[in-house]
Each structure stands twice: as C-alpha cells, then as structure tokens.
TrEMBL record:
InterPro entries named among the record's database cross-references: Ras-like_GEF (IPR008937), Ras-like_Gua-exchang_fac_N (IPR000651), Ras_GEF_dom_sf (IPR023578), RASGEF_cat_dom (IPR001895), RASGEF_cat_dom_sf (IPR036964)
GO biological process: Ras protein signal transduction
Domain (N-terminal Ras-GEF): residue spans on this chain: 151-280
Biological source species: Microtus ochrogaster
Keywords, sorted A to Z: Guanine-nucleotide releasing factor, Membrane, Transmembrane, Transmembrane helix
Residue span, Ras-GEF domain: 324-571
GO CC, one annotated term: plasma membrane
GO MF annotation terms: guanyl-nucleotide exchange factor activity
Transmembrane segments: 12-34, 40-62, 71-101
Keyword hit for rRNA processing: no
Pfam families documented for this protein: RasGEF (PF00617), RasGEF_N (PF00618)
Protein name according to UniProt: Ras-GEF domain-containing family member 1A
Length: 584
C-alpha cells in the first residue's frame, strides 16, 4: 500500500512538472509570435516606402529614355541621308573604274610586256621598263602578238611563232630582258639554238625590208642597234649555244646583214666585232677548263694490289693530310663552288631537252653539251668512293672507328656551312655496303651525330627534312651579313630531279596548241635561284695540299672495296661467303 501511494505521489509530481514546462513553452511561443508580427509590420512599412522610391525613379528613367530615343531617331534619319549620298558616289566611282580598266586592257593588249621574275641574273638594269629610246611592240608591228596570252601582266602562253616574234626588237620596241632570258632558255626544248637564230634572222630581214620600202628608212640604224643588243645579250647569257658551227654561221650571217645598215660610221660593225671577240674568249675558256678537269680525273685502283697485300701502314691517309673536320669541310666547299660555278643555265636545260629519264642520278644526253653536269655529278660519286676507300683500307679496327667518326664530323661541318652536296656524298659513302657491313667497327662508333645527319637526309616525304634545312639556309643567305652565311650548295642530284619532274608533270603545250609559258617561267625561276647560289665566292682560305689529295687520291673500285672490307671483317653469312669466294 505504501508503495502504491508513493508511486501515485511521484506520478502527480511528474504531471505537475510537465504541465509547468508546457505552460512555459507556450508562453515563449506566444512571445515569438508577437515579435514576428511586429517584424512583419515593420517590413511592410519598409516595402511601401521602397515602392514609392522605385516608382519615382522609374518615372525619371522613362523621361530620360524618351529623350534618348528622340535623339537616336534623329541620328538614324541623318545616317540614312548620308548613306544615300555615299551610294551615289560609289556608283559613280565604279562606273569610272570600269571605263579606266577597259581602256587599260585595250592598251595592254596592244602593247604587251612581260613582268620581272628574276632581274638579278640579267644585271642591275633588268626591269619591266624598256631602255631609253626603246618603246614597246605595237600591234601593227607584230601580227603574232594576238597569239600571246597575258594574265595579271605576265605572259602565260602563246604560239611558238608569236613568242619568237615577241623576242625580236622593232624600231619602237625592245623585249623585256627577263623574257629574253626565259625564252632563250626554254626555246631549246622546241628547237636547237641555230634554228632559232635562223628564224630570228628571217624576222630581222623582213623588218629591214619593210623599213627600206617605207617612210621610216632613217630608222634603220636604230633598228640595227637593237638587233645587235639582242645578240649581245644572247651571247653573254648563253655563250655555249654558239659552240655549234651552224649557230656561229647564223650569227655571222645576221651580223653581216645588220652591218649593211650602218656602213657610214661603222658603229654597229665595231659593236659586233667586240661581241664576237668576247664570245670566242668565253668558248676558249670553257674548252681549257674541260681539258684541265680531264687531267685531274681521279684514278681508280683495281683489286689487284689489294689482293696481294694490304696497304702499308706508312701510307698517307686523309687524317695524315688534314685532321681538322672544319678545315676539310671548308676545302670541300671550295671544290664544290669551283665546279658548280662552271654550270650554265643551258646545261641545266639539257636535262629537259636531251633526257627522257634519270638513271642512277646521271644525266643522259649530249656529253659535250652537258660536260659540266657530268663533271659535277662525277665529283659527287668520287667523294663518296673516297670516303669508303679511306675507311675500308684502314687495317686496325680502332683506326677505322676514328676514321668513321672523323667523316661524321666533316659531314656535320658541311651541314653547318650550307654545303649539302658534300654532306650527302659523305653519308652516301658511309652507307655503301662495304662500309655499312663493318658491324664490329660501327659498334665502337658514337653514332648519335650520324643519326642526326641521316635524319636530315631521310628520303621519306620527298626529302622533307632536307628541304626544310635547305629553305633555312636560303633564308640565311638572303639576310646574310657575311660571305660565310651566303653559302648554299644544294644536293645536286635532287635539284636535277626537281627540274626534270617539274618538266614531266606539266605539259609543254596547252589544249589550244599554245606553249605553256607559265611552266617555263617556273623552271627559269628555279634555275635562276640555283645560278645565284653558284655565284657566291668562297670565303675560306684555299689549301692546295688538302685539295690536291681530295682530287687525286687513289680510289678503290667497288670490287676492291669489298675485298678490303672482307679482309678487315670476315664474311658472316652464306651470301657474303659466296661473294668473297667470287672476288678471290
């Protein structure tokens, strides 16, 4: 009983505590509600005040906007009026331009002139303007001028007859020197120089007869002077066209007819005599150069001496003559520039006019006319074989390793100079089978530099890496501050291929029968660029001892190279063993 009463008392106490607690919580809630009501009232008052302010501001802004709109409307009206005025002016100007262009086109058709492509090869006076006192060919002077097509001021095509007539001066016209060079260079694709000379002589004779029969007989001397000037430029730019007896006979025939127009004071006759004398000197100089190079042609050692005994240790090699890679690279550059300087533009055109294909990087055609090309190509082959000879004839592996590393450094210096032709020849020599098979020797060589050189001469993508390097050297040459930076000697075999394939890709004649002269502009441009490189004077001091060794040192034949290679490192497989037996 006592326990039950105690429990009831506790329960009552708990109820009272709970009721008191709930009452307190309700009071707090009521107080919070009151506070919230006051807050809401204050917020509403604030909002009302803000709305009033906003309304006032909106009214002000609307008034400002209305004023701005009025101003903009006025501006637009003024601009529309101005636009109408401008349109009227533009229409008037367009009509004037159309009339002017039409007049200029008619004048251009009546008096065509070619544009300048490569003035430097023709001298400082080569530009689009004719010489003082020499006008342009008029429409009546050349019926063939209607067969010439111009685009943007440049002659792009024409019949062969029209192009020949465009070459010959008249009383009031003298051809652009750039055109003279390009046509004389490209004409040999279609006819030999002596035939072109004969046709030029006929055109000159016809014009002379017209002058003698007409009222302009007094201008015969002026006409003769221009003909002599044309012949002078021809003999200076392409002197070896006149090695042919027929060409020389035609030249003398034209000269004889021209001198008859100035028999009184003999000025024309004197100019012709000087021209022919200079021509004969040029031809004689080239003949002497050919004879000299024949004497300096490197001898080839047969396999006999190598079979009997290895070369004596005391025999001089390239390292005994020059151990500095930079000096040897400079002397190679000397030889390159001397040999490439003898190449003439007409020699390069023989690639097109006398060759149907390239065979092992060699030009096939008239040996006499392409002697300079053959000599330069032979120099490349001789240098490659000399490198292989110097490596293979060394007895000790340690010395062969040193020899390979030396030539790698020489090739690298050639690259730095801009002598890409010698660099390619050296790399080719080290890649010949008798050298490349010397695996034990190559294993001792630090080939990092050689790998870089081979990367530059990687044949993939049409020698893309080499062409990038060549372009860089060309840009350096154009902005050079010293003669050393002007040197650019391209890989000649690749240059020859570029010219040849440019000829093969583009046709000589267009569908209408015209000669595709645009093609020959591009060929002439590339030949001009090459000729510019050949005119650079070598800035390095000449070492006759080193050059004599490079030009006259004995060179092993291909069989001799293999024998020396097998004696240094024996055959490793059945194919090499069979080759070794056949050689012995």
């Amino acid at each position: 009983m006592v326990v039950e009463e105690t429990v009831r008392a506790v329960m009552k106490l708990l109820r009272m505590v709970l009721l008191v607690t709930m009452a307190g919580m309700m009071v707090e809630v009521l107080m919070m509600v009151v506070v919230m009501e006051e807050t809401v009232v204050m917020a509403v008052v604030s909002i009302n005040t803000g709305v009033v302010v906003v309304v006032v501001m909106v009214e002000v802004l609307l008034k400002v906007v209305l004023v701005v709109v009025d101003v903009l409307v006025m501006v637009v009206v003024v601009m529309v009026v101005l636009l109408k005025v401008v349109l009227v002016v533009v229409v008037v100007l367009v009509m004037v331009v159309v009339v002017v262009v039409d007049v200029l086109v008619k004048v251009e058709e009546a008096m065509p002139q070619t544009s300048v492509v490569f003035s430097s090869i023709l001298g400082p006076n080569c530009n689009r303007q004719v010489q003082p006192g020499m006008g342009e060919r008029g429409g009546g002077a050349s019926n063939g001028s209607r067969d010439l097509i111009f685009q943007d001021g440049r002659l792009t095509s024409g019949s062969l007859e029209a192009l020949m007539e465009h070459l010959v001066p008249t009383v009031d016209y003298y051809p652009d020197r750039t055109y003279i060079f390009t046509f004389l260079l490209s004409s040999r694709v279609f006819m030999p120089p002596h035939d072109l000379l004969a046709r030029v002589g006929q055109i000159c004779l016809e014009q002379r007869q017209q002058l003698e029969a007409g009222p302009e007989k007094a201008k015969l001397k002026s006409f003769s002077t221009k003909i002599v000037q044309l012949l002078k430029e021809w003999t200076e730019a392409f002197p070896y066209d006149f090695q042919d007896e027929k060409a020389m006979a035609e030249l003398k025939a034209i000269a004889h007819r021209v001198t008859q127009c100035d028999e009184e004071n003999g000025t024309v006759k004197k100019a012709i005599a000087q021209m022919i004398q200079s021509l004969l000197l040029s031809l004689a100089a080239r003949s002497q150069l050919q004879e000299l190079r024949e004497k300096l042609r490197s001898p080839v050692v047969d396999k006999g001496p190598i079979l009997k005994a290895k070369p004596p240790a005391a025999q001089k090699d390239i390292l005994g003559v020059c151990s500095d890679p930079l000096v040897l690279a400079q002397q190679l550059t000397h030889i390159e520039l001397e040999r490439v300087n003898s190449i003439r533009p007409e020699d390069l055109m023989q690639i097109i006019s006398h060759m149907d294909s390239l065979d092992n990087h060699r030009c096939r055609g008239d040996m006499t006319k392409t002697y300079s090309l053959e000599a330069y190509d032979n120099w490349f082959n001789c240098l490659s074989m000399l490198v292989a000879t110097e490596v293979c004839r060394v007895v000790k592996k340690k010395h062969r390793t040193r020899m390979l590393e030396f030539f790698i450094d020489v090739a690298r210096e050639c690259f730095n100079i801009g002598n890409f032709n010698s660099m390619m020849a050296i790399i080719s020599g080290m890649n010949l089978s008798p050298v490349a098979r010397l695996k034990k020797t190559w294993s001792k060589v630090k080939t990092a530099k050689f790998d870089v050189l081979e990367h530059h001469m990687d044949p993939s993508s049409n020698f893309c890496n080499y062409r990038t390097a060549l372009q860089g050297a060309t840009q350096r040459s154009q902005t050079a501050n010293s003669s050393r930076e002007k040197i650019v000697i391209p890989v000649f075999n690749l240059f020859v291929k570029d010219i040849y394939f440019l000829h093969k890709i583009h046709t000589n004649h267009l569908p209408n029968g015209h000669i595709n002269f645009k093609k020959f502009w591009e060929i002439s441009r590339q030949i001009h660029e090459f000729m510019t490189w050949t005119q650079v004077e070598c800035p390095f001091e000449k070492d006759k001892k080193i050059q004599s060794y490079l030009l006259t040192a004995p060179i092993y034949s291909e069989e001799a190279l293999f024998i020396a290679s097998f004696e240094s490192e024996g055959p490793e497989n059945h194919m090499e063993k069979d080759s070794w037996k056949a050689l012995r």
